[in-house]
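Quick review question:
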């Protein structure tokens, strides 16, 4: 039988258990993927803890993981243009990435020059970055403040916005300021006085993308002249001050991988540094994710 990391119950990382799971056949318009790498995201940890059951009503026995890269193992009867053995990247419509196999309803070919781990680290970040930039309706010549510019989503969003002709001011920890500069942004530090530091760069901003959830929304509203063009991916209290929460939906950014994967293959898109662990060590990956001990994107590697 195939194996996967199963959510035995809601709770700490130890509830993730490597065990046997059924073999699933792809539907007519689906692929079965032998997983080579699976990205680990903060949303995965929230699901594991049971913090977001309204949005993700999973139960014991679920397999977490939204983003994978791997090799096509079986092809649905109505699928055209892909065959067994092809290398693909997938943002899964449901969950299921932390296993030897995953079922995918959408996919993008993996370029030969992109590693399995890079391919698995991109899907969620790309979808969120492309989606929220669309929702904010940013245009060339505007000034965009990104809270969390050195995180996985912020790294992609900063580069895309700069490429589209925006001035990007990126809030990040001091250790990441040089990285933000390398991405094309102007770094500023978090914490008290954020608004003043941003105004030293620009007297106002046109839009704010919050990818950090670290409490910077009041300053963001003041800088943007109101909450209309302020949007968060991470602050659970956003609605209390009138800020919209950007939620991943199938129609938010279906073009995200098609847009970003060629840039990654060409070296025109950088990703956050990664730390890889074996797929069997998903519980340890979640422990590291929540410990604050690491600063990298976590990726689980299959065989």
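Suggested answer, residue by residue:
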């Amino acid at each position: 039988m195939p194996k996967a990391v199963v959510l035995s119950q809601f709770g700490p990382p130890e509830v993730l258990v490597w065990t046997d799971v059924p073999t699933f056949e792809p539907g007519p318009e689906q692929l079965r993927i032998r997983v080579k790498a699976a990205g680990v995201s903060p949303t995965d940890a929230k699901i594991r803890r049971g913090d977001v059951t309204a949005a993700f009503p999973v139960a014991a026995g679920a397999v977490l993981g939204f983003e994978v890269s791997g090799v096509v193992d079986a092809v649905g009867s109505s699928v055209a243009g892909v065959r067994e053995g092809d290398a693909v990247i997938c943002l899964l419509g449901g969950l299921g990435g932390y296993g030897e196999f995953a079922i995918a309803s959408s996919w993008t070919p993996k370029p030969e020059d992109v590693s399995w781990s890079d391919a698995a680290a991109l899907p969620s970040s790309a979808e969120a970055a492309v989606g929220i930039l669309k929702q904010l309706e940013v245009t060339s010549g505007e000034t965009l403040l990104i809270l969390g510019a050195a995180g996985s989503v912020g790294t992609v969003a900063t580069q895309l916005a700069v490429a589209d002709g925006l001035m990007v001011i990126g809030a990040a920890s001091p250790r990441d300021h040089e990285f933000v500069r390398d991405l094309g942004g102007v770094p500023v530090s978090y914490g008290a006085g954020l608004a003043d530091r941003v105004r030293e760069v620009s007297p106002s901003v046109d839009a704010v993308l919050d990818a950090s959830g670290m409490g910077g929304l009041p300053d963001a509203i003041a800088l943007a002249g109101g909450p209309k063009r302020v949007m968060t991916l991470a602050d659970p209290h956003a609605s209390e001050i009138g800020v919209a929460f950007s939620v991943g939906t199938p129609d938010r950014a279906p073009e995200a991988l098609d847009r970003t994967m060629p840039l990654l293959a060409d070296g025109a898109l950088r990703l956050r540094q990664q730390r890889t662990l074996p797929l069997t060590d998903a519980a340890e990956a979640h422990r590291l994710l929540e410990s604050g001990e690491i600063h990298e994107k976590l990726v689980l590697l299959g065989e």
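Why it works: The first helix runs from residue 42 to 49. Residues 262 and 268 are 8 Å apart (CA to CA).
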